[in-house]
Amino acid sequence: MLEQIEGSAAVARAVACCRPEVIAAYPISPQTHIVEGLSDMVRTGELDPCEYLMVESEFAAMSACIGASAAGARAYTATASQGLLYMAEALYNASGLGLPIVMTLANRAIGAPINIWNDHSDSMSQRDSGWIQLYATSNQEAADLHVQAFRLAEELALPVMVCMDGFILTHAYEEVDVPGQEQVDEFLPPFEPGLALDPDAPVTIGSLVGPEAFTEVKYLMHAKQMQALDAIPTIAAEFAEAFGRESGGLLSHYRTDDAETVVVALGSVLGTIAETVDELRDEGVKIGAVGVKCFRPYPLEEVRAALAAAERIVVIEKAFAVGAGGIVGQNVRLALSGLRSRVHDVVAGLGGRPITKQSLRGLFDDVFADRLEVGKLHFLDLKRDVVERELARSRPSPGPHAERILRDLGIVAARSH
Amino acid sequence: MPEQRIKHYQTGTFVVGNRLLDPDQRSVQARTERSNSLTSGHRACQGCGEALGARYALDAAMRATGGRVIAANATGCLEVFSTPFPESSWQLPWLHSLFGNAPAVASGMAAALRAKGRDDVRVVGQAGDGGTVDIGFACLSGMFERNDDVLFICYDNEAYMNTGVQRSGATPPAARTANTKAIGPEPGNAFGQGKNVPLIAMAHEIPYVATATVAEPRDLEAKVERAMELRGARYIHVFVPCPLGWGSRSRDTIRVARLVKESGLFPVFEAERGEVTAVSKIRRRVPVTEYLKLQRRYAHLFGEHPRTDIIDRLQAAADRNIERFGLLADPDDAASMPGEATDLAGLGPEDDASPEHAGEETNVMRLLSETHGGPR
Q1: B138 with A93: Cβ contact below 8 A
Q2: The domain containing residue A310 runs over which residues?
Q3: Residues of B with CB below 8 A from A90's CB?
Q4: What would the pLDDT profile of A65-89 be if each residue is shown by its tens digit?
Q5: Which domains does chain B have, with CATH numbers?
Q6: How many domains does chain A have?
Q7: Considering the entire predicted model, what is its pTM?
Q8: pLDDT per residue as tens digits for the range A376-404
Q9: Would an 8 Å CB–CB cutoff place B142 in contact with chain A?
Q10: Cβ burial A61-90 (10 Å sphere, 16+ → b, else e)
Q11: What is the number of other CB atoms lying within 10 angstroms of the CB of residue A218?
Q12: Does residue A384 lie in a domain region?
């Protein structure tokens, strides 16, 4: 049943329908509404049996999930930004131990400078942590992906991170058909751990592994994650059958047939991109969009197949590797190796800067007119005068760029001297 | 086997031999049905106090729960020497996750068991001093504050032994470690404010806090058993000598652990809900030098130019513990400390068998009752 609901509330209810037995979370914006909602449901008994641990840090949140999962419980947490970094060590541990923990990541920028708004620098920083990474385009998809994530995690014994754009999705009210308990119960069987801490069958988990077997263990981690490339479409298809709507999968394709230009992106910005594509299509421009719904494992073959026919590819990504360039862009180029397509890396939406249709139109106009240099990292809506003034300042004074720029813009009046 | 009348202490150790006790008083370790939670074949150094402590504590926890224990272990010596893949010395369900998260992992396990209605299975978390008082401290305090149903045991060998003997927050003043060498005007570790985690645990007013040493296994076992009678957060801090890191002889592990208590440097006590409920009295008070001289990490305090100033400060710390915790059976004893042994280097166990503490039948029972059956 469709209802007008906040994204976080929809996710909280979808997660509750998955019957997590242990939730351990620490507050960080913009994830808070999700775990507040779950806390309410545990308190009222709506979600029972479930233990909600109010831990002292994100590191403890993930660690408690590790303990709970190893003891055979379905475990869930949610975080964002700095919180994800603070649990980084435990993320690698959870994936290395093959624990099917599910986490919501309310994507938010990483400081400094501190910033609470959306981009993908948090999830991208942990792309190699061994977690499966799914990206939601809408709140409907965010809710649905959690139901699929528990299935996927438990089938493969791997942790899954469901990424949804902070504020843009988490705090947006829109129509969502929240999965119902009966439907979810039918789709998601109870958690049967392959290996759990049990006094009746003692096992040692987390041994010291030396050079004689470490490579093999890591190979198997990779092999298992690659199996998700088969499991994700299967689960998405089963989900579509059971729930009557499409959600998840590896890639989404929007008007890509005959498209000469294809825009590649992750997450909620695909909505704005689709509208821009519609406008350009109305004008006769052959443009389409491909959404990467699953970034880890990386669906290399699928990306290649989706983009092989395009002349130009514009990758719009909300994070980048400082000193190197685009992250999604690099992965796209890898998929297209040997082909002659032109790939443009465009960083956009950092720290919550809106990605508007107008900006995208301007960008695409530049692309069509060959004004965008290939092989160079571009920043959408960059205030070029500001950065150039800062770069031009000869005084080699170490210190925070952010504060000097703010002063330059007249936002902060204080002077340091 | 016919019971023998208790005649005397076993030579030098102050520990009554199990074979002299009533069968129901014998230690868990003396029982054939002990679980051998940490079984033989592991790679601990000879004389490792931590291996002893873990074995005593977990076997006692297993006995108290009918074998229904799962354990969370921090990174460190105990983890490394017990689980070189593909071998494992653990005969109970055991998980190692990270260095700094064992208390939180244990909390998660306890939550899982609670959600599953498995109140028969109990959780023990364990770490060395680094994993407890330093890198794991936030998780430990969080677990205490939430009163999660976890017994956490710290095996304190007073430095980062696994990485090559570096200083931890539990390293005592003046002790030499790899990064507090015996060089410069203030040799060894600095005199800091200290980080007394048993007292910090008590400040959380959790159901149970205790300290123990591996010199008195029955005392340690009794404390673990008491801890397993209770629910909620419980903490036991076990003093475990490290021959490698301390430069003590492997055969002196028990002696060193005994002397730390007898000198007053390490008070052995129990507390419930933030109040001390029992202390193990000092049996034969010794000056701190008797303890220090057995360990090369303090060698710079002795020799040709002894640092009596530093030794005096350490003695003052011991005296303060004695005063603060009331560690003397008879406070009048405070003035009559026996003289310092002049040369401990050549002492073997037999040398402690002085007539002054032989044949004291009544004292044996009194001391036993103080350490094991004292006020709760």
Answers
A1: no
A2: 251-379
A3: 97-98, 101
A4: 999 999 999 999 999 999 999 999 9
A5: 18-372 (3.40.50.970)
A6: 3
A7: 0.91
A8: 999 999 999 999 999 988 666 667 778 77
A9: yes
A10: bbbbbbbbbbbbbbbbbbbbbbbbbbbebb
A11: 13
A12: no
